[in-house]
Design goal:
Layout lengths: L7 H6 L7 E2 L3 H9 L6 E11 L12 E8 L5 E6 L15 E6 L5 E8 L18 E9 H5 L5 E5 L16 E8 L5 E10 L12 E8 L5 E6 L14 E4 H4 L6 E7 L7 E8 L1 H10 L3 E9 L2 E20 L3 H6 L3 E9 L24 H13 L7 E7 L1 E3 L8 E2 L8 E3 H12 L3 E3 L6 H16 L4 E9 L6 H11 L4 E7 L32 E5 L10 H6 L2 H11 L7
Parallel strand pairs: 1-5, 18-19, 18-24, 24-25, 25-26
Antiparallel strand pairs: 2-5, 2-9, 3-4, 3-6, 6-7, 8-9, 10-13, 10-17, 11-12, 11-14, 14-15, 16-17, 19-21, 19-22, 20-23
Length: 574
């Protein structure tokens, strides 16, 4: 009978055939989207085929079905998808596809199992089949990152026996090919420059630090944020940097949008100044006419809802459409992320040989905060670097028979700073604890400048690498202005900086380095950072386990990567 799924007619002959299955991530997606996180999460569609499967049938060939599982942080598999059954084939191509959210900052482990469905069950819906009654053909596992980082987005996996099954004499189980496609119907992106005039605030004596939030409305009428501008300080007639809206992200050019203008508040409770409801098509008309539109302020009096018209107006100074490439497009084009680590060895960490030290290596195997940060971030980023050779440094310590160094190679070498893989970082860190004397002060500048030099050399040589420096520290930086100068200089390079604060120190000054609150860093010479490249997280904020340190740190990285590529007008090689 051959491969039943090789064409449309064959697809109809497949048993239990259907369309595309979606993962149960809708609630997670909605939660993250409500916080404005778009572009980090994107839908990918996985398609599957296999070659040289085992033949478990006597009078015919196997009738294979694929079952897909995801593994959570606890490592336990959860079934999320079953394909149709392809009749009488050892080289099946399944029609059904599995759609799931690609989450950059999470290690998304997938487990695939192939079964030969017995003839007596061919008229049973696949979701009703009992897997223990089917013959096992083989299994394989990988992460979603391993698939999307391939230039053709296809990964071939060797099928093997189940780990919990007895050793079998059969050495060959065949291969599974998994292919990923990004679910984007349109890469057309609208670029707009928005400005306001005569912004007014109910508190006449307060300063206005305005920013815009653009949301789309869904069927239930609730707005879902899709874009926000930067915060401008003390500006009643602000002009924001260009905002980019993907047509698919919005829905269509006729989808109603809500544009809200807020006054930024450090408490996080931002005051609504006013709002405008317009579609992209209507905003384009505003640009053509040069006219503005008045903001309105919804108010509630008792049971009645009113809208107060304001003199504040919104203008569209520029409206243009272009093709904007995605993070996955750049990965497909061969771009890589190079992970780098810098570890704080200042004396304030405490004697590493004592249990109260932040550097204490627990004989039970329990990881300290430094080890956890390296492992969690490294496990995510390692898949985006083909050679998995990572630069690793220490700072604030005195190497054997030497002066205090604020940037020394973690592996003890005088010539090279790279180590092999995440485990190489962990081994170099453990070794360094016994080969250096903790000292001080806490200086970030030398490490950032060293990382910047590597990034600039790669850029000069036409490299396709984007560098990610993880700094783990227990205290407030001593050279704050020098650090700001180094970060401002690095903002023009293919580099992002992640900072984890461990221990109980007051890290408020460190938050200045992270421009999430709208204030770009300024150097000694008055130069302002061209983009936000720093993300700071106190480790104690993520110790509850609900969100990993990697999720907190890496959430903005794809956006920073895309911002750099667009600023340089670098297009992916696809």
């Amino acid at each position: 009978m051959g491969n039943c799924c090789s064409d449309a007619a064959g697809g109809k002959a497949a048993v239990g055939g259907a369309g595309t299955a979606s993962s149960a991530n809708d609630a997670v997606d909605c939660f993250l989207k409500s916080r404005g996180f778009h572009g980090i999460f994107t839908q990918v569609e996985l398609s599957f085929s296999a070659t040289n499967l085992r033949d478990r049938d006597v009078l015919s060939k196997s009738d294979p079905m694929l079952v897909v599982y995801t593994k959570g942080r606890d490592g336990l598999p959860t079934e999320v998808f079953r394909s149709e059954v392809v009749l009488n084939s050892l080289n099946p191509t399944w029609i059904m596809k599995y759609s799931m959210s690609y989450q950059f900052e999470v290690v998304q482990t997938l487990l695939f199992r192939v079964y030969d469905v017995d003839t007596q069950f061919h008229n049973t819906e696949v979701k009703m089949l009992k897997l223990e009654e089917q013959q096992f053909l083989g299994e394989a596992s990988c992460t979603l990152s391993e698939i999307v980082t391939k230039t053709n987005r296809s990964l071939t996996l060797d099928l093997a026996r189940r780990e919990d099954s007895p050793i079998a004499s059969h050495p060959h189980y065949g291969q599974l090919i998994v292919h990923a496609e990004e679910c984007i119907n349109s890469k057309t992106t609208t670029e707009m420059i928005l400005r306001c005039s005569d912004l007014e605030h109910r508190d006449l004596f307060s300063r206005i630090n305005p920013f815009l939030v653009i949301s789309k409305t869904v069927e239930n009428g609730n707005p879902i944020p899709v874009c926000k501008t930067e915060v401008l300080k003390n500006d009643h007639s602000p002009i924001w940097k260009p905002v980019f809206l993907n047509i698919q992200q919005v829905g269509s050019k006729d989808t109603p949008l809500v544009i809200e203008c807020y006054n930024f508040n450090n408490s996080g409770k931002h005051d609504l100044i006013g709002q405008v409801r317009k579609s992209l098509a209507e905003l384009e008309k505003l640009r053509s006419s040069g006219e503005g539109v008045n903001f309105i302020l919804p108010t509630t009096l008792g049971q009645d809802h009113h809208k107060q018209n304001l003199k504040s107006r919104l203008y569209v100074d520029n409206f243009a459409e272009s093709t904007q490439y995605t993070f996955l497009d750049y990965l497909k084009g061969g771009c890589e992320l190079n992970f780098m680590v810098a570890v704080d060895f200042t004396a304030s960490n405490g004697n590493p040989r004592l249990p109260d030290s932040l550097h204490y290596i627990d004989p039970s195997g329990r990881l300290n905060a430094y080890q956890q940060a390296v492992l969690e971030v490294g496990e995510v980023l390692q898949f985006y670097d083909s050679d998995k050779r990572f630069p690793a440094w220490g700072f604030g310590a005195r190497p054997i028979d030497g002066p205090v160094s604020h940037c020394f190679n973690l592996n003890g070498s005088n010539n090279h700073c790279e180590v092999e893989g995440v485990q190489g970082i962990m081994m170099a860190y453990n070794s360094a604890l016994f080969n250096v004397s903790l000292a001080g002060p806490t200086l970030f500048g030398p490490v950032i400048n060293t990382a910047s030099l590597m990034a600039s050399q790669s850029l000069a040589n036409g490299g396709k690498k984007y560098y990610v420096l993880l700094i783990i520290t227990d205290g407030v930086v001593t050279d704050l202005q020098e650090t700001k100068d180094a970060i401002v200089k690095a903002s023009d390079l293919p580099l992002s900086i992640l900072i984890v604060g461990v221990g109980g120190a007051d890290f408020k000054e460190m938050e200045v380095l992270d421009a999430d609150k709208g204030e770009r860093l300024e150097s000694t010479t008055g130069r302002v950072a061209s983009r936000d490249i720093v993300q700071f997280v106190p480790f104690r904020n993520v110790q509850s386990g609900e969100v990993s340190v990697a999720q907190e740190l890496l959430g903005e990285l794809p956006t920073q990567f895309i911002a750099y590529m667009r600023s340089r007008d670098i297009q992916p090689n696809i």
